[in-house]
TrEMBL record:
Family: Belongs to the TMTC family.
Molecular-function annotations in GO: dolichyl-phosphate-mannose-protein mannosyltransferase activity
Topological category with respect to the lipid bilayer: Multi-pass membrane protein
GO biological process, one term: endoplasmic reticulum unfolded protein response
One GO term describing the cellular component: endoplasmic reticulum
TPR repeats: 499-532, 533-566, 601-634, 703-736
GN (gene name): Tmtc4
Enzyme kind, highest EC tier: transferase
Domain of life per record: Eukaryota
Entry EC no(s): 2.4.1.109
UniProt domain DUF1736: residue ranges: 311-383
Protein name: dolichyl-phosphate-mannose--protein mannosyltransferase
Residue intervals passing through the bilayer: 39-57, 131-151, 188-208, 220-237, 286-305, 372-391, 403-424, 430-449, 458-476
Keyword vocabulary terms for this entry: Endoplasmic reticulum, Membrane, Repeat, TPR repeat, Transferase, Transmembrane, Transmembrane helix
Amino acid sequence: QIHKQHNAEAPELEQAFPRMAQTEPSLDHDISWFLLPSYWAKMVVAFISLLCFANSYDGDFVFDDSEAIINNKDLRAETPLGDLWHHDFWGSKLSSNTSHKSYRPLTVLTFRINYLFAGGFYPVGFHVINIILHCTISVLMVDVFSILLGGLQFTNKGRRLNLAPKTSLLAALLFAAHPVHTECVAGIVGRADLLCALFFLLSFLGYCKAFRENKEGHNFSLFWVLVSVVLGAIAMLCKEQGITILGLNAVFDALVINKLNVLELIQKLLHKDKSLENAGLLRKGLLLRITLLMSGGASILYTRWRIMGTGPPAFTEVDNPASFADSLLVRAINYNYYYSLNAWLLLCPWWLCFDWSMGCIPLIKSLSDWRIIALAALWFCLIGLICQALCSEDSHKRRILTLGLGFLIIPFLPASNLFFRVGFVVAERVIYLPSIGYCILFTYGFSLLSKQAKKKKILAVAVLGLLLLNVVRCALRSSQWRSEEELFRSALSVCPLNAKVHYNVGKNLADKGNQSAAIKYYREAVRLNPKYVHAMNNLGNILKERNELQEAEELLSLAVQIQPDFAAAWMNLGIVQNSLRRFEEAEQSYWTAIKHRKKYPDCYYNLGRLYADLNRHIDALNAWRNATVLKPEHSLAWNNMIILLDNTGNLAQAEAVGREALELIPNDHSLMFSLANVLGKSQKYKESEALFLKAIKANPNAASYHGNLAVLYHRWGNLDLAKKHYEVSLKLDPMAPGTKENYNLLRRKLEQLQKKGG
């Protein structure tokens, strides 16, 4: 028997209202791929993105991390939070001529929070946040791709439908596991790109929510449009590319919400057709929304321009040589070649490098250069895609290709050199957002191939193999980003002509004490770029330490000749001239360095040493005092002041300076030692003893500490303790000057006392 009671309690079915034509084919129909519920699809994407980059979690601070994080005073608690809004990404004032004008205060704020929670510069926390951000972005991409590939459609209860679950999952996996993203995820400064991408996507999804109640295609939520503008502004405060989402929202509105046919619109505009309203341009709300987006974008850009100081950033020829070419044709050819390299990195991300400047990509100066083929291939593909996007009779194809090209090109525009000069040739980090467009085009191409292919499963296996290959490449590349040594050496095979690569390998070796190997790489850097002043400066420093003073002077002189305001090279030249006993020239070099860098404590310290060698004691003390004013923790300058005052018999002044220094640097054992010597000479034996013992506790293997404490006990009459510390000192350093003589004097005195006692 059939029971009919259930009819009364039947649930109401949700009605869907479309934002796209119901007759459009689904991309999922012809592909052989995984069909997972939305929750599981996002879990898979999160897992894959984690798998790709998890091994970077315990990496070091590498490459630009040093300047953006370790040397950035904006991360320290003592720097007022308000300063973040007036400084660039590297901590320099935006008004400074040397500022790169990269205004990313929200990114710096997250670094500061990392630093405060970690209690210092511990890279693990920084890396973990980057990995979490990439996983979050990859999960959001499932929703974004479902809209871009399947269209925007809601139920009557406002729940968005995923009309392309298979293709959106594939595109999100391609994005999550793209090796070109390694720099953004494994390099901590890539946080800027990750935060920008996060708010970029949130702005897009927010804009889509504006049409949740839009059953007739006319109503929209003004609130969500404004929210998307605000989120776009936040994205730009993380990195400059963020502003481009407002343009993409406008493109999406025209193509998906209003189903605008771009070619038809252009034809009507050219023929001054009065039926423009029917073409969709004047459909209710579209102009208002685009006006809101564009006015919001213009306001954000104007504010950004005012904060930046209205002046463009200053870059050098080595940063972007094509932009300094005299010929417009040479500039245009090389810019387009750079675009083709970016496209190749998206298609085949196997050759990756942390830096592509300084000769890595030689300029194309002639049309006979074979690399012109790359430009032709790029534009052949682009023109073909643009023609299909504009002229295809299939509205579904037009929409997807236009959105794919939009997401590929528009976020790349700030890095294109078209509007202003940028400070790089190719940078993998700037194609983090454009890779969204690549994933759309790749997935659409895969669906077209699947439609034609008879053996769809073989094609699906091939794509799965590509994904697995990308995961492996991401993991390998992430491991290279874990340390500077691995990162810099990995670039030697990719960019052997890049002087900066050789410079960084050399610097890394020098930091580890391998000067001989470092010299080799510094020389190669100078050979590749004869105007590379930083390589000359570092090479000159090493040669100076190895007492090869003549060549060191030649290199440093050439460096300051090429870049007359290079303060560090002037100071190092002064040190070499001082060693060569050319004191007047050394003094002039030091003052030239200070002229170009007013706050230069190390230079004042070296100037003080010069004056001390010349017995100009007052000048020496003034120079060292300047060093400590500029850098209160400058231990060497404090020590030299104490020692000079001690040696010239100014014990009271030496004691005062020593106490002042220890208040500022209470745990510096060398200062304790110097002050203890002064107190001993002033017959303040008890206080002197306490400082000696404290210094020895901090540095127990310093022979001079034990030797001078023994002298104190010797003077004080505590002969047994004196004997003990003389013996410790001689054990640590049998050749310690004066200690053996003092010890022998003490032994004779003890023998005499024993005879008298006997």
